UniProtKB/TrEMBL annotation:
This is Protein HIRA. Belongs to the WD repeat HIR1 family. Residues 934-943 have a biased composition (Basic and acidic residues). Transmembrane segments: none annotated. PANTHER family: MEMBER OF THE HIR1 FAMILY OF WD-REPEAT PROTEINS, PROTEIN HIRA.
Length: 943
């Protein structure tokens, strides 16, 4: 051991009250009195321990000096990561310092330039008196301060200067504070002759210890207590035993106070454990020992160093200073001990590995924590029993656990309409115990077209309502059943057109008659957004409507008319020509289809006319084309018109000019559905004989060719949609829905009468959020099925305690994840991972939680690979964020959180060595040889 006392480490001969070594071991900070102010100095440690560096003028001694405090600085403490330095003073302030780029200047008016520049990043104001001591929590989440105002304040280190808690209970000046390294407790010591243990899960008082301090008479300026790095022992300052001053050992197990460090002749002022757990081979037995190292300073100007494996101190140094020792600091992984005194001096003690032992590696320390607490390095979780209080071991989880766990929502709440919808009409209801039964708010249809015939009858042109909720996007699909896509205006109205000459047609479809341009001009692009309401019919026994109409939002207003004309319902699965005159509108473009408009010697021609709506009352015809077979279905996009004819031919026309984009193509049977992708790059057709084709209009090639025979055995397609990625969705008349995976060459089930699917849709929020086919295709498609709405609400309640419910929901969610991955829906992919975390947090088992998380981690040590645009770390974090709100998952959360942090930026750790024997206390271990230097011994007293 060597003792060094650099005379150049000084505060201009003023008192130094605190000292702390940086975690990196290359610098240290001192705090104390300056010239007419408090002073904080950051020193270079290398010149202190290296004589050559001390003599080298190019090696700076002072790295930075801060004179911002208005009164004497009482404590300085580095954060665990070394990025922040906290200082407190008699000016009632706490300052948080952070390093800035470049060097720094001295105090105001000084020309001295320092090697480093540290700026005050935050000033914490909350104490009503001098602040005497500071302590950072594990992981630097909080910082605790104590003051002569008898309080301890917990500050949120993530959101300075926010106060998390003010702990009141002491009746005297609070002079010392320290965190349990396990994160379960915080301890404070006061002049009121008590040491108090506080719980970190709510910062309430847990234990008050008074016995060792009852005989204490005089006071000290500070009472710096310390917790052992293994969390097993708390050592206090200024206790008494048999009339002599001691450093009291308080065991975590039962808070027993039957051992202490004795020998100092005056009150103990500060104690400080080495940050590492040490190990060595016992000299006589050659057995491996684990122990902690502690330094004790007192008012008798002497310093002692103890190993908990020995009965006596390792070394004692008398009269090290001319005044009381006020603070101590160990290098984090080294053998250096710094001490400061009220006489303004600093001493450095250099030990060797033979003297102190070897620090445990991180893996060995993890193994020790695992054995002691069941958790690597941080926590142990004792599962709570009914009626007992659960103590949160990890203090950072306290905030999260105060928040009520709620099911995640697919669509952000800010995007949902603020006004709730009116109560639905009697009929099948959707029920969820945690969700209101009110239907989600939806926009009412703002404009419809009404025509009056010569006989006085009113005819309402039916409107096709797309699944899209995006301006200018094409409809989901259209079949030849008299529907058309229309815009909506800002005011609710019905356009009335007088028709004196045309008789009422006798066709089974409602006729979309020619409308006056003065009325059509009101259908402009700024009103394209439509609601998701549509009633489909079939000319066969009635089936449940896939798109039930919503009630009007205002009961005083007349309900918007959505149904078709009376008469025989159309056959959705059979291609039949459109009415003689049919309109389609998209943005500023209106396309009119006139079947049987021209009779020739070769047959009847169909006319297709394109109009551009530029200004009010200005509807300009821009193109016209002829088709030699009646049109059975037509669809528009912002670029293209798709016309499908009865003879099986299809045509892609430019919506601006009417010119063909692709040559006319023939399919084996006429189309019953056609649609575009929202971005207008893809077009799809579904025919009577179940042929499905998707074309890439930009590349002018086929994108997908298949059949849907596998899914229409018991029903027929009712609606078709195509995503931007070319993924088709088909909803059948019975409510089932499917999507096609090109990679798997199979139809994926998105909705069916399967009990697991029914339970999953019913137990989640599907159908109760605004629909958005472009952003959330899977959930929007699933919301149209009758499975959830037909389920009896009482069935859910009756089965709420059934054992099958949780595994069924997990199976449903995991299947949803796989579907979203196949259809390339990233927002839904992440949402269902979050929903998986919610389900695991509320009803999962430890085995299932570990299975899911281990599956995401995989075997690789780095998890920066992406899935659907998200890193695996992001998905794991989403699940962990759900788990952290439930106290029962605290241990697993911390375990996987640590693993996530390690694997996200570190290489795999080395093999974990065998765990040595437990720690031992003074009097319990091997006794050192009696030949030890007599000058290094202290007088000892029995406990």
């Amino acid at each position: 051991m060597k003792i060094l006392q650099p005379d150049w480490v000084t505060h201009d001969d003023k008192s130094i009250f605190s000292i702390d070594i940086h975690p990196n071991g290359d610098k240290f900070a001192t705090g104390g009195q300056g010239n007419d102010s408090g002073r904080v100095v950051i020193w270079n440690l290398k010149p202190v321990i290296n004589e050559e560096a001390e003599k080298d003028k190019n090696v700076p001694r002072i790295l930075c000096q801060m004179d911002n405090h208005l009164a004497c600085v009482n404590c300085v403490r580095w954060s665990g990561n070394g990025q922040m330095l906290a200082s407190c003073a008699d000016d009632r302030l706490i300052m948080i310092w952070k390093k800035s780029a470049g060097g720094g200047m001295g105090s105001f008016g000084s020309t001295v330039k320092f090697a480093e520049h540290w700026r005050c990043a935050a000033t914490l104001r909350g104490h009503a008196g001098d602040v005497l001591d500071l302590a950072w929590s594990p992981a630097d989440v909080f910082i605790a301060s104590c003051s002569v105002d008898n309080t301890v304040i917990i500050w949120d280190a993530k959101e300075f200067p926010q106060i998390l808690q003010v702990m009141k209970g002491h009746t005297g000046l609070v002079k010392g504070v320290t965190w349990d390294p396990v994160g379960k407790f915080i301890a404070s010591q006061s002049d009121d002759k008590t040491l108090k243990i506080w719980k970190t899960h709510d910062f309430s008082l847990y234990k008050t210890i008074t016995e060792p301090f009852e005989e204490c008479g005089g006071t000290t300026h500070i009472l710096r207590l310390s917790w052992s790095p293994d969390g097993q022992y708390l050592v206090s300052a200024h206790a008494m035993n048999g009339g002599g001053p001691t450093a009291q050992i308080i065991e975590r197990d039962g808070w027993k106070c039957d051992k202490d460090f004795v020998g100092h002749r005056k009150a103990v002022t500060c104690v400080r454990f080495h940050n590492s757990i040490m190990k060595r081979t016992a000299p006589k037995t050659n057995k491996s020992q684990q122990y902690c190292c502690l330094a004790v300073g007192a008012r008798d100007k002497s310093l002692s160093v103890w190993l908990t494996a020995l009965q006596r101190p390792l070394v004692v140094i008398h009269d090290l200073f001319q005044d009381s020792i006020l603070d101590l600091s160990w290098s984090h992984n080294g053998y250096i001990l710094l001490a400061c005194s009220g006489d303004g001096k600093v001493s450095c003690l250099q030990f060797s590995a033979e003297e102190l032992g070897t620090p445990l590696s991180e893996d060995e320390k993890n193994s020790l924590y695992q054995r002691m607490y069941g958790k690597d390095r941080i926590t142990d979780l004792a599962l709570i029993e009914p009626g007992k209080e659960l103590i949160i071991e990890n203090p950072y989880l306290f905030k999260a656990m105060q928040e009520k766990l709620t099911a995640p929502t697919l669509i952000p709440q800010s995007a949902a309409p603020a006004t709730p919808a009116k109560a639905p009409e009697p009929g099948p209801s959707v029920f969820h115990p945690a969700i209101s039964q009110d239907s989600p708010p939806q926009r009412k249809i703002m404009k419809q077209i009404e025509t009056k015939t010569a006989d006085g009858k009113r005819r309402i042109t039916p409107m096709f309502i797309p699944l899209n909720d995006d301006v200018g996007e094409p409809a989901v699909g259209s079949s030849g059943n008299g529907q058309f896509s229309s815009s909506t205006a800002s005011k609710s109205s019905i356009i009335t057109v007088e028709k004196a000459d045309e008789p009422v047609p006798s066709t089974s479809r409602s006729s979309s008659n020619v409308v006056d341009q003065d009325d059509i001009d009101k259908l402009t692009e700024d009103t394209v957004k439509l609601d998701i309401r549509l009633t489909k019919c079939a000319n066969q026994p009635p089936t449940t409507a896939v798109f039930p109409p919503d009630p009007p939002e205002d009961p005083k207003q007349k309900a918007p008319i959505q149904t078709m004309d009376t008469g025989p319902p159309p056959v959705t699965g059979k291609a039949t020509p459109l009415p003689k005159t049919t309109l389609r509108v998209h943005g500023n473009y209106r396309v009119q289809v006139q079947n049987d408009s021209i009779k020739t010697g070769f047959g009847v021609l169909c006319k297709v006319i394109g109009h551009l709506i530029t200004l009010p009352k200005d509807d300009k015809k821009i193109w016209e084309t002829l088709i030699g077979s009646p049109v059975v279905c037509v669809s528009l996009s912002k670029k293209t018109v798709l016309c499908c004819s009865l003879d099986g031919s299809i045509r892609f026309l430019d919506i601006h000019t009417g010119a063909p984009i692709l040559p006319a193509m023939s399919l084996t049977s006429p189309a019953v559905h056609c649609c575009f992708s929202p971005n207008s790059n893809l077009g799809a057709v579904l025919t009577e004989n179940c042929t499905l084709r998707v074309w890439d209009l930009q590349e002018q090639c086929v994108f997908l060719s298949g059949t849907c025979r596998d899914i229409v055995t018991n029903s027929y397609p009712s609606v078709m949609h195509l995503s931007d990625q070319g993924v088709p969705f088909i909803i059948l008349a019975n409510g089932s829905s499917f999507t096609y995976s090109k990679k798997l060459e199979s139809w994926l089930i998105t909705n069916s009468a399967d009990p697991i699917m029914r339970h999953g849709l019913f137990g989640s929020r599907i159908g109760l959020t605004p629909r958005n086919i472009k952003a959330y295709p899977l959930s929007t498609i699933q919301s149209f099925g009758p499975s959830a709405s037909k389920l009896n609400p009482m069935a859910f309640l009756e089965n709420s305690n059934k054992a099958w419910q949780t595994p069924a929901m997990l199976s449903f969610i995991q299947n949803q994840i796989k579907i979203t991955e196949n259809i390339n829906s990233p927002d839904e992919f992440r949402f269902w991972h979050t929903m998986l975390g919610f389900q695991l947090a509320t009803h999962g088992t430890e085995e299932k939680v570990r299975q899911i998380l281990d599956g995401l981690f995989g075997t690789a040590y780095r998890i920066d690979g992406e899935i659907m645009g998200f890193t695996k770390a992001t998905l794991i974090r989403d699940i962990l964020d759900q788990l952290k709100t439930q106290p029962k998952w605290q241990r697993i959360y911390t375990e996987y959180d640590d693993q996530l942090k390690m694997r996200s930026g570190m290489m795999p750790p080395d093999d974990v060595p065998e765990v040595p024997s437990p720690l031992v206390l003074p009097g319990e271990g091997e006794e050192e040889d009696e030949e030890a230097d007599g000058d290094a011994k202290m007088d000892t007293a029995a406990p």
